[in-house]
Give the backbone structure.
Amino acid sequence: MYVPFESLPEESRIWIYQSNRKFSDEEITEIESDLQAFLQNWAAHGTSLESSYQLKYNRFIIIAVNQEVQSATGCSIDASVEFIQSLEKRYNVDLLDKMNVTFKLGEHIAHKPLIDFKKMVKDKAVTESTIVFNNLINTIQEFNESWEVPAADSWHSRFF
């Protein structure tokens, strides 16, 4: 069951998928429609999941579930991954590769393979104060507090 993102409690579980390219405004409109349709029918063991999404920077898909109502289970999580894979095919993007880093370079959102990000650190093209997107977070509260942070305050700090 789709609900507004703001109505979900901070303890809600989230999954963040980053695209290796920016989506066009037309693609975002289509993705929003597809997400609402998917979430409206998303269920675990026959029970609707109270869920929502956000799209950020035309690049990130954030899916959230209120686990106080019904927890996402193996089959329901598999269904969400299949949905994300369908988006990958439809838009010819990579949303599931966790070995990529997305970060801000001024107002620009950059996306690099981890090996290239490490080289940028070595070349001082990014610093500990560079804003990175920490996609390893698990709840809306963490999303609100720790998603966009200086590299020094995230798992990326080990590269400095």
